[in-house]
Amino acid sequence: xxxxxxxxxxxxxxxxxxxxxxxxxxxxxxxxxxxxxxxxxxxxxxxxxxxxxxxxxxxxxxxxxxxxxxxxxxxxxxxxxxxxxxxxxxxxxxxxxxxxxxxxxxxxxxxxxxxxxxxxxxxxxxxxxxxxxxxxxxxxxxxxxxxxxxxxxxxxxxxxxxxxxxxxxxxxxxxxxxxxxxxxxxxxxxxxxxxxxxxxxxxxxxxxxxxxxxxxxxxxxxxxxxxxxxxxx
Length: 233
Fold this sequence. Notes:
Blueprint: H1 3-16, H2 22-33, H3 43-56, E1 60-64, H4 70-78, E2 84-89, H5 92-105, E3 111-115, H6 118-127, E4 133-138, H7 145-154, E5 156-165, H8 181-195, E6 199-209, E7 212-221
Parallel strand pairs: 1-2, 1-4, 2-3, 4-5
Antiparallel strand pairs: 5-7, 6-7
Helix pairs in contact: 2-5, 3-4, 6-7, 7-8
């Protein structure tokens, strides 16, 4: 089977499970017109996140990596009416396009887009003593994924679900040492997920579809106060 077959099946299920969504289609088009990189999650992964947020009964969601707000809309649509979504974006242009997309989508919960370096924004959230999040979605620059994980755990409560995208990288994470900082960043993250004392359970799901071959990591928080001891790598 080739990647075109995977894409065809992905498109089939997108059609069967809901078909084209004009709001989400417009969000992608607006992002493309603004020159944002075409790296948003696929529709089926968006639907999967939506289902997970519903199953978790999430009221408060933290997203690390907004881009044009495509995944943000999927997550926001799943929240209870009293909920809140906080999403972090480094690029001001991306944040501006995301705000336009969210306004056009008319989501029913408040969405805070915080612009700046994510590690600094995460520290600011922690320093402010915000209420813990029920679900965290990580989909940003790969090199600091491990540090994002540590911050996500600290901003969680027992039972919080942490999801991270792009953790397989076409299988290159299994090839040993790499000169690609994106790959080594994910290798560090995967090792951290496996050993983090604050997590109760973790798993990785390989994914194929219109975006090619990659995967998602899942972890459930047990003790937000447990501190991971950094390795020497």
